[in-house]
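Work Package 3 (structural annotation) set out to generate three-dimensional models for the target panel prioritized at the project kickoff. During this period the team completed the workflow that converts sequence records into discrete structure tokens, so that structures can be stored uniformly alongside our sequence database. As a representative example, we reproduce one entry of 207 residues exactly as it appears in the project archive.
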Amino acid sequence: MTSLKDTLQLRQLTLPAAHSLCSFIHKHKMLSLSLLLLLILATYFLYSGLFAHVIIFTGYPPIKNVTFVYKLQEGPHKNRAELLKEASRIGPNTFCMEVFYDYPKKVPGHQCRYAVGSFVSEGKDKVDEDLLKLYETFGFHVFSFPEVTHVVIASVPHRNFLSVLLGVKRVYPRLDGTFCNTICLLLPGTHSNNVYGIHIFDKCESK
């Protein structure tokens, strides 16, 4: 028959072992959760276009003979999200374009100029007069682009907000000093025809 002394000794041996086992399981659980989190983040970055091929080519533009409604603004480029939201609320099914006139690494953020807006007609499509008047009611300006035959195009995935950040970091270093300095777009209200970059989205959404 087991004595009380033997039982106490057995408990003294068992408790440290159980504590060590619990610590081992806890550490491995934290490690598993950390690995799972890293896997999710890696998948998200890959889906956003971290290693997607950047396609750069010259040729005919993807759009032509367009009527563009826009607003001009000065300040850090990140503030353009508000204009995108406004344009999206007015015309949620329109194409959207951003025009950046200054290079943030050379011009102070508060002095950077950009235009954001939507296309209300393209090609042979007629302008939706009601939609055009609605944009004008909210202070948007109107500009019609003539058809051009030769442009430089860079194409990257646009799936979420991170795609935009990754695209800017990967595309512009390849274009800077080579193609960007040849782009000209003088919108009414601007005082320079030098353009740092142009973004065109298939839907006017703020992602």
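Helices lie at 4-48, 80-90, 129-137, 161-175.
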